[in-house]
Design goal:
The protein is α/β, with parallel strands linked by helices. It has helices spanning about 1-15, 20-55, 90-105, 180-210, and strands at about 75, 80, 110, 115-135, 140-155, 160-170, 175. It contains four helices and seven strands. Strands 1, 2, 3, 4, 5, 6 and 7 form a seven-stranded mixed beta sheet that branches. It starts with a helix and ends with a helix. The model is unreliable at about 15-40 and about 40-60 (pLDDT under 50).
Length: about 210
């Protein structure tokens, strides 16, 4: 009987020891939350200090970088001149460049009469570079490369602020030649021309807005 009573008491002690008082739980939770809040405040103060340091060093954040003068809010993009034998490539490049600035949004695309900046360009080179051949030495695949020259005018200051030559597509825009199917080959080529135009347009936009 005494043995049973002793086991009962030990069981009750064990149960009580495993229970954490509500006040202690609340205290632990509070300490955890304070630690989390402290870390957040510390991170916030570090970021603020960094921003102040950058400002004091002369760094700032503007809507457009590169060679864009302060106060310039819009740009006119004139139709590129085509100095190649490839028809309509100037149209594709012009559309692609205009679209790059529209999507970017830092400068509004307007007509020449309303523009702070005017971008002019010419397609200086259009290359079709063979990439592969079949067993009979016929070209199976071409790569399209487009090279442009650009000038950027500050209308208010009446001066050229950027003049760049030899900007070209960076990524590979290629198309396959389908022997005996002129239509399919033509469609594939047009798609590659559009892709190469978009690629060189990205380079133009980056050169104007980012300075590289």
């Amino acid at each position: 009987m005494k043995e049973e009573e002793r086991k009962k008491r030990e069981k009750e002690r064990s149960s009580k020891a495993s229970i954490i008082p509500a006040r202690e739980v609340s205290c632990r939770t509070s300490l955890f939350n304070r630690s989390q809040n402290s870390q957040s405040v510390t991170l916030f103060l570090v970021l603020i200090s960094l921003c102040l340091a950058l400002t004091s060093c002369g760094y700032g954040f503007t809507h457009a970088g590169g060679i864009v003068p302060p106060g310039a809010k819009n740009i006119a993009i004139q139709t590129f001149v085509n100095n190649t034998n490839e028809p309509y490539v100037d149209i594709e490049v012009t559309k692609a460049v205009a679209n790059e600035f529209v999507v970017d949004g830092r400068l509004s695309v307007v007509n020449t009469e309303s523009a702070d900046l005017v971008l002019k360009g010419r397609v200086a080179k259009f290359e079709m570079i063979p990439l592969s051949y079949d067993v009979n030495s016929y070209v199976q695949q071409y790569r399209i490369n487009i090279v442009v020259d650009i000038t950027l005018e500050d209308v208010k200051a009446q001066k050229i602020i950027l003049q760049d030559k030899g900007l070209s597509s960076v990524f590979v825009a290629s198309y396959a030649v389908t022997i005996g199917d002129i239509k399919s080959t033509k469609i594939a080529k047009q798609s590659a021309v559009i892709k190469a135009s978009q690629d060189v347009a990205l380079t133009v936009r980056s050169r104007v807005l980012e300075g590289f």
